[in-house]
Amino acid sequence: MNWKGVFPAVTTKFHEDGSLDMDLFFKNIDFQLESGVHGIILGGTLGESSVLSQEEKITLTKETVDYVAGKVPVILNIAEGATQDALFWAAKAKELGASGLMILPPMRYSADAREVVAYFKAVANSTDLPIMIYNNPVDYKTLVTIDMFAELADCTNIQAIKESTRDISNVTRMINRFGDRYQMLCGVDTLAMEELLMGAVGWVAGLVCAFPKETVTIFNLVNEGKIEEAREIYRWFLPLLELDIHPKLVQYIKLAEYHCGIGSEYVRAPRLTLVGEERERIEKIIKDGIAKRPNL
Q1: DSSP 207
Q2: Each residue of 111-143: pLDDT tens digit?
Q3: 204 assigned to a ligand binding site
Q4: Angstrom distances, CA of residue 155 to CA of 73, 87, 131, 133
Q5: Contact in structure between 240 and 247 (CB atoms under 8 Å)
Q6: 131-144 b/e with 16+ CB inside 10 Å = b?
Q7: Which residues have a catalytic role annotated?
Q8: Which domains does the chain have, with CATH numbers?
Q9: What's the CA angle centered on 198, arms 196 and 204, to 5 degrees?
């Protein structure tokens, strides 16, 4: 598994009546692939996994794997409250042809360090799929510490970390402790260029759903050492990237997809589409960004 590159955490597309809109979903996937992304992540926060049925998740995974047809890896996110459910999805991902897994610590129950490590090990030992641990204590209230990663190091298929602690120096701490044992990917859009400069090899991105070309260009420029060129695009991008660090990131990013012509703003309850002053404010950020899009 090559974890280097831009991995969109794609949104799930719905019709107005709430049913899956696979045609629009694949329109967006086409645009991602044409823009040069390096993988696709299904079932994350942006994918509204918590409001999808088991059957819908299976459909989404199978059809995406078939549609992408090996052009890039397809990664399934696992965010479950029960270890047995996580094990089910690890096995199902393998069965459906997914290339790897992204895994959050146990949901809802606030597990301690011993329990979190046991949870990750149980999943890792049940499959040969490569795994990326999603470390996001800000939103999900569980910090996977460096000492916990030391305990997980003997699970060879735990290969990567989606670094979302919002502490840039954590990239350096991890590299100092483990060298290249774990591949570090930035999971916070507003810190992406900074973490890439500090040694992250990838970017699990949100606004890429609406602006894939710009996201991939920044990544490529940083890797080519063209820092000034990357910085110019990143400064333009930052007001849009800040939409990724809000509790309504799903609504905000889906509205951006809609204005870019590669998505719709339909979400599933309890989320609701934006109205009033909030909608006007977010639309202004999106429209200003589109109007000032850099010439790539």
Answers
A1: G
A2: 999 999 999 999 999 999 999 999 999 999 999
A3: yes
A4: 21, 16, 10, 12
A5: no
A6: bbbbbbeeebebeb
A7: 134, 162
A8: 5-291 (3.20.20.70)
A9: 30
